[in-house]
Specification:
Elements: E1 2-4, E2 11-13, E3 21-30, E4 33-41, E5 43-44, E6 49-52, E7 56-57, E8 59-65, E9 73-76, E10 78-89, E11 92-97, H1 99-102, E12 106-108, E13 114-117, E14 120-123, E15 127-134, E16 141-149, E17 192-193, H2 197-200
Parallel strand pairs: 4-17, 7-16
Antiparallel strand pairs: 1-2, 3-4, 5-10, 6-10, 8-9, 10-11, 10-14, 12-15, 13-14, 15-16
């Protein structure tokens, strides 16, 4: 449902929505003044499309390191995670990347096998786990992806090794002042509310 914050400065969604709307009417009253505001709501389709570059991870031969401050231990491969969904508002549909929104909501079914580090999934021991994106409000599963961590081949040429390292140093980064804040903003609908809060609340 559309909500107004305590300071009456922002309109937000509380995560209980079940569909989008081209114009959800919000009534605003202050003393003798009143106004109705139409708010566009984009609703994400479930399940989310969550994919990883490599769903099967292996130990890296000869590489020992510290993981989360632990003692020296075997290091495993990492894989990049990406997530997309289609947002719906009435008859309109728009596809968008939602990786940065769901990363904080990801929980592994078996945290001893893999963990989320930034936008990567790191193996920690042999086994299988399912990464679940959980709605912070309802705890419902919004999407899943499976990860396996398996041993290397016994053959010497079948072992996973580090063969090179590339380092890129970024000294400055800037964006134009007119960069839109929303992937759906097209400069003609300033009252449009993208259903980002449904995933982040």
């Amino acid at each position: 449902a559309v909500q107004v914050d305590g300071a009456c400065k922002e309109v937000f969604l509380n995560g209980s929505e079940t569909e989008g709307s081209e114009s959800a009417i919000t009534h605003i009253r202050y003393n003798s003044y009143s106004r109705s505001l139409g708010v566009s709501i984009w609703f994400p389709e479930y399940p989310l499309e969550i994919v990883v570059t490599n769903p099967t991870l292996k130990p890296i031969h000869g590489w020992l390191g510290r993981f989360d401050g632990s003692s020296c231990t075997q290091m495993y491969q990492r894989t990049r995670l990406d997530a997309h969904t289609t947002f719906v508002r009435g008859t309109q549909r728009r596809r968008a990347r939602v990786t940065s929104i769901i990363l904080p909501t990801l929980k592994p079914s078996n945290s001893s096998v893999a963990q989320v580090i930034g936008d990567r999934i790191a193996g920690t021991s042999f086994g299988h786990t399912t990464l679940m994106a959980l709605n912070p409000t309802t705890a419902n599963v919004m999407g899943t992806v499976n990860i396996s961590v398996v041993p290397n081949d016994l053959r010497e040429d079948g072992k996973t090794r580090v063969v090179g390292l590339q380092v890129f140093v970024v000294t400055s980064l800037s964006l134009p002042d007119n960069t839109p804040l929303s992937p759906f903003y097209n400069g003609t609908d300033p009252e449009e509310v993208v259903f980002r809060s449904h995933l982040s609340r």
